[in-house]
Amino acid sequence: MVQRYMSLPTLKRSQHSIIIFTLGVVLFLSVCCFAGLLVFDFYRNCDPLNAGLISNDDQLLPIYVMQTVGHLQGIPGLFIAGVFGAALSSLSVVLNATALVFLQDIVRGSFKVQLSERATNILVKSVIVVLGAVAMALIFVLEKLSGILSVATSVTAIAGGTTFGMFTLGMLVPWSNTKGALAGAVAGALMSGWVSFGSQAAIGAGRIGSHKLNVSVSDCLANYTIPEADYSNEADVFPLYRLSFHWITVIGVLSTLLVGTVVSFLTGPTVLKKLDAELISPVIHRFLPKECFPPRNANPDFTRDNTAQTFTHLLANSGDSPSDLGRY
């Protein structure tokens, strides 16, 4: 995402892109929350999971669509087409970007291999096919886990938490250096990955489960009994594995910041007097030495955009009148 912003020609366009992206994410999450509220209200007295109508929480929205607008011809198909279209578009972007990153950073960057155009096309397409096959194979793994949302959030939190931690380290820790950032990134990825995959392995083994709020089946057509949840066996599971998957990003960020700060300090911190204050968050500016800030011009006329006014100002200070400009 950062590379996309940096590819824009000006800072203003990058800022506008970030604003548009943020508004889009807020709108998307708002729609998701609203859809969740609709589903919750519709099934408030007849939980379809405990009633046996569905086998997984991921099926709540599809069954809601079928029971509310399923009688309208074309609407269920439109819903399925929208879901598959959104999934395939996102998947195609990820596969293409990953294949190009593999080509640019690993093949050309690490191994210094320069391929012909034909070999490059074959390599990129082969990587896409392999990644697609791996994605298809992971479908059978998802059946054993807690659901798509928790798995996707847990996996993306590994990269998201590490990346956010690195940028936060650079903005808030003035003495951070390259070694500290690298060590922090490795530590954050390992820590969040350990918690993420460990918790998913515990869920797949049936050692822990999702703690859910109380639901009702009083208005269901048939008589159902909600089984009592038993969480007594979870006491033997490692405490970090019992955390919600929403905390994995926080774990990655904190690990990156802590390790990155300590390693930067031990391996030779950046000299603060030679630091560019523009690279540090304004919150930290008050703690930086004066040498970090370039001297500001006291006269607003001395700018690159008003050369004529600047020249006139110089002549006025030297005792010449504006009418003498022709001499110069």
TrEMBL record:
Transmembrane segments: 20-40, 78-102, 122-142, 148-169, 181-203, 245-266
Origin superkingdom: Eukaryota
Record InterPro entries: Na/Glc_symporter_sf, Na/solute_symporter, Sodium:Solute_Symporter_SSF
Lipid bilayer topology: Multi-pass membrane protein
Keyword presence, ATP-binding: no
Family: Belongs to the sodium:solute symporter (SSF) (TC 2.A.21) family.
Protein name: Sodium-coupled monocarboxylate transporter 2
